């Protein structure tokens, strides 16, 4: 028997029983699922496309207009809403999908991606009626909801004879992404996963990690958003460049939080970063050199620019480890040229502990070369470029960045009551980071 008739019959039976016997909160999700099983047929069965593609948009809009005009029919959009209001964003999403039918016509991939919306997201809605632990990356979603999304998507795909585990995994991650509408994100990401499964899967994980860091106040909201776009661009161009920048981002956040109370006593102007997280500008400052290198790679297809991108990220972690860890691990800080002792926390100061920490950071990022191993020459050139860039950062910071003593600590911008102890107020900390990472990239581009 044709699946259209089976699912249509089930829809009539289930909806009839639901309206009579169940509370409204259950009816909405049941409506979500069973009506979807009818709609989805016309994406996975080519013979039905010409007729349904022509009729459904008009039918959908007609029903919706009737619901808006005649008060007695207002219960239909209310059934679809989450908050008993008849005009939420979710309803717009549903009817946008109906209107999209003629555009996609018999696109089997789009039809199978709707399995995630119909079966996965629909079944996940029932998780709100049970106690379950919230997701670390999105407190409004639960672990049970993730598993129900995975299970519901697979069951729906099985019904249409085309199980795709990767798209189901993307669905369960996409449904729990913090967004305006999970109906939109789950459908879009699942659809894209049919074209580039690995990259879309990795991207959903990266979005969750960024969201988690934002919740834990390691990134600001804008910092998390810009980081997602930066990571997406790196992912699009090169896995090696992505791994290097992602490694810097995660390890840099960990390093900046290490013994932060002691660091707050030494560096008086970083309290905002430690309390609210890294901002969008900080994410941009540390990524601009890498991004430009990747743009040149897309233009020239010269692998040297990928290596330069990795070197830029390696310099950023070298500098972060050297300054953030060196500041709290060392009791003695030295001038980068004269090696005389200077006040701990001063811009451009170096220490034995900080230098060793920086070397470790550079070596960690250098391991990214094993993604597509071409010999140890690339490994050591990245290490060398990172050290050169980090040392340049110290020199620029010592002479062209303001350092002042204030309340037994150090400030990096002039404030009332501070006394200058080194450098002129020419570069900000972000500008120094940009210049130093470009120096590392140029070492690779010119000499490698």
TrEMBL record:
Subcellular location per the Swiss-Prot or TrEMBL entry: Membrane
Membrane topology qualifier: Multi-pass membrane protein
GO-annotated cellular components: membrane
Matching InterPro entries: DUF92_TMEM19
Keywords: Membrane, Transmembrane, Transmembrane helix
One Pfam family from the record: DUF92
Transmembrane segments: 6-23, 58-80, 87-104, 110-130, 142-160, 188-207, 279-299, 356-373, 380-402, 422-447
PANTHER family according to UniProt: TRANSMEMBRANE PROTEIN 19
Family under the similarity heading: Belongs to the TMEM19 family.
Protein name (record): Transmembrane domain-containing protein
Organism: Spironucleus salmonicida
